[in-house]
What does this fold into?
Amino acid sequence: LAVWCGEPPTTRIHTREEAATLPKEALLLGLPRTTTVQRRHITHRRRDGTVLCEARATVWLDSPVLPGPVVARLRTGPQPLGELLGPLGMRGRTLRANRLCDYSRPLEYDDQDRAVLLVSAALEVAHERVALVEETYLEPVLW
It folds into this structure.
């Protein structure tokens, strides 16, 4: 995002932890009925406050491939997932990427919050999914 926009964005990360009930398909595979997840809401802004991208992530804190110290760092501070999971060999797998607007329409100031691209991805460590991420890029990312 920094290279694309010409400046590093300011990032804010809000987190909350909760128990999540797994779908019955997961139960058929022998997974636990509930798991602990961290819900993350991430906002990337330009220095002037303009929102470039918003992301939502769900991290499976009970994942057996996440070492205890990494889970502890997830719980104690709002750090980017790439910084925490990257040293574990994290790989992102794009699940879906959709263009959301008509680029032939002129860019206008009033369209600052118009979504232009939606990307969904799974983050994997040791070939196991540990997080799902959905990023929404807004029109100012094109300016």
Q: What stands out?
A: The CA atoms of residues 19 and 36 lie 5 Å apart. The radius of gyration is 17 Å. DSSP finds four helices and six strands in the chain.
